[in-house]
Amino acid sequence: MTTILETQGLTRSFGAVIAANNLNVKIEQGEIVGVIGSNGAGKTTFINMVTGYLQPSSGAIFFDGHSVLGRQPRDITRLGMARSFQVAQLFPQLTVMENALVSLVAAEGPQPSLLHPLDTRERRERAEAIFAEFGVSQYRDALVSTVPQGARKLIDIAMALVSRPRMLLLDEPTSGVSVEEKFTLMDTVMSVVRQHGVTVLFVEHDMEIVARYVTRIMAFYSGEIIANGKPRAVFDDEKVQELVIGHRIDSNVFGEVQ
Ligand SMILES: Nc1ncnc2c1ncn2[C@@H]1O[C@H](COP(=O)(O)OP(=O)(O)OP(=O)(O)O)[C@@H](O)[C@H]1O
Ligand SMILES: [Mg+2]
Hints:
Distance between the termini: 18 Å
CATH superfamily: P-loop containing nucleotide triphosphate hydrolases
Radius of gyration: 18 Å
Strand order of the largest sheet: 6-7-8-3-9-10
Number of domains: 1
Number of helices: 9
Helix content: 25-40%
Strand content: 15-25%
Largest sheet: 6 strands, mixed
Bound molecules: adenosine-5'-triphosphate, magnesium ion
Oligomer: single chain
């Protein structure tokens, strides 16, 4: 197995609050890791630190064996680690295609000139291919503000994949999406990432979604990882039931990924 992401002693305080406390995480290539934990447990803080959006108070971060501590988010994206945010980062007053063109330019790196055209045939074709993969081609020319919430979340995640990352971190990909749409959204995302062999870590509050898609769970509580392992073992953990889930998990939520 090849480790793609590793943190050592990763710690971050906000005043008296320790949002991340000595996190030692190892993610192997090809894993689909679910991160669970109640509000304020430190899930987003962890993602923010490994993607360069937040500086740790102490500790080390390695992506693909290279230290990424202190690197800018865009440099980390270009190394192959992309992310989505808890709230979609799309420009609501631009069309879906315009958003894709902007994301593609950002993923390509600094442009030689501001006068360089954004809208090229090559980028349009690349955007079209991504829309087709995600089944959102019909929204190509729609303003993002008019696109239904489920499709909007999907487009937001698609934008994170334009840089062709090897690892993708999703912060609550199904938040704000109706119960009926959640599984469709995750089926689509998982089929695309599997096709491209992308390693995934995603934060999720819905335990049915977690049980269905992940190969491993990390349970956060108060800035610490209180359980880490196969879904069934983590759901059976008494501390997880008490501090994260609040009840026992019905065994019929498990999909075939065990
Ligand atoms: N910028 C900040 N300034 C001060 N405190 C912060 C900041 N960001 C996070 N915190 C605190 O750190 C702790 C962890 O927050 P974090 O956002 O990582 O939680 P989370 O697990 O993502 O929660 P949620 O499920 O609500 O998204 C919380 O106590 C939060 O209030
Ligand atoms: Mg969060």
